[in-house]
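Hmm, what's this shape?
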Amino acid sequence: MSMRKIFKIFFAVSIILMLSAPVSFAADERQNRTVLTVGSESLNEAEIVSLIVDSYDGFGEPADMILTQLSLEDREEIMDQISVSMLFAEGAKGERMDLSPKIVFQIKWEVMQILAYSYFDKVSDSWDFSEAAMRKYYDAHREDFMQSEAVKASHILTDTESEALTASLEASFDFDDAVEKYSRDRKSAQYDGGSLGWVESGMMPAPVEQAIMEGRVGQILNPVKSELGWHIIRIEDRRPARQFSFEESHNMLLQSMHGMYVDQELAKLKSKYQVTIDEDALRMLGGVAAPDAAK
């Protein structure tokens, strides 16, 4: 077997070992029968079936169907592949690598991650995403499913007022040419003709936003100053605020409800388990002081 193949198998099996859970199958009394032993570790029948089924997970086939397709030769090859990963693990233990702080922590963290994902899978099974539940949530949070008023605009950004006045004069004749010639915002100038896209409230510096929101479609505004420089703005289009329908909000509803359920579960866990952070240790992590937040 080539080292490339061994590495591929080792990586794949390692991931499977971290994430797999035992799979139930018909002969329950045989689940604990040891099938493979390598050094100090062994895998029973249920664990071997779990590894095989998880390796076929993308195909969505049941365990019985997968196993029916595997000849004895296929199964022996699979055992050989799994044993490679287990042999490397035994080699690591022989070198006492399992006692190194780094690996002990990695194992500790992987266990916590597996438990977290498993817990999440369990509790999320009870979350209600039926149409009735989604409509109830939509009706109670209609303000969250609004399309904001917006203005589509383009701009030329310059460093000085004098540059802005010169660019503004030329923009009144050929805005696109003036963008390319004068704008310091090279990304929008080069690819989008100076486009700012649809500007909603809170997206731009206050003086620029105010000018854009008050402008008329087709108008090229007088230069406006912000902390970024001087802006010559052309108003392209306006879009009024409107309510998204229930149908239009489907994906947003799923995301919002998912967040709601996660927040509810976190609130339950925080009420049950105490979270403590050593602020002094946090300020000096690894002996390095945190930068002054005020700066």
The mean pLDDT is 87. Residues 101-124 form the longest helix (24 residues).
